[in-house]
């Protein structure tokens, strides 16, 4: 989804560096994986092809913040609810 992004904070010796991988087009997403001491963050198309990949040593990664795009749930909003009349109490 466009808007998905991951921020990576890396220890660079005497300072820290922040990198950001963003899904740049609609239909793309950002996936993260940790394998064999390497953190890999990839921008992936709908069919699974990696467009861009960033790799970091896991020992140097201080923070990995995944920020998905906020999704609206239409079933919980006023417009999404079905308008049905309230039932009257049969005892009255």
Rg for CA atoms: 22 Å
Shape: globular
Spell out the helices and strands N to C: EEEEEE
Most strands sheet? 3 strands, antiparallel
Counted beta strands: 6
Low-confidence stretches: none
The share of residues in helices is under 10%
Strand content: over 45%
Strand order of the largest sheet: 2-1-6
List the defining traits of the structure above.
0% helix, mainly beta, 92 residues, 3-stranded antiparallel β-sheet
Note down, in words, how this protein is organized.
By secondary structure, the protein is mainly β. It has no helices and 6 strands. The strands form 2 sheets. Strands 2-1-6 form a 3-stranded antiparallel sheet, with no helix packed on it. A 3-stranded antiparallel sheet has the order 3-4-5, with no helix packed on it. The protein is globular and about 70 Å long. The protein starts with a strand and ends in a 25-residue tail after the last strand.
């Amino acid at each position: 989804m466009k808007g998905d992004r991951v921020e990576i904070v890396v220890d660079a010796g005497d300072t820290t560096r922040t990198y950001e991988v963003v899904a740049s087009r609609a239909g793309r997403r950002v996936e993260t994986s940790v394998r064999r001491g390497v953190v890999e963050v990839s921008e992936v198309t709908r069919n699974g092809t990696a467009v861009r990949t960033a790799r970091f040593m896991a020992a140097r990664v201080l923070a990995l913040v995944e920020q998905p795009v906020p999704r609206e749930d239409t079933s919980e909003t006023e417009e999404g609810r079905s308008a049905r009349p309230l039932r009257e109490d049969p005892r009255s």
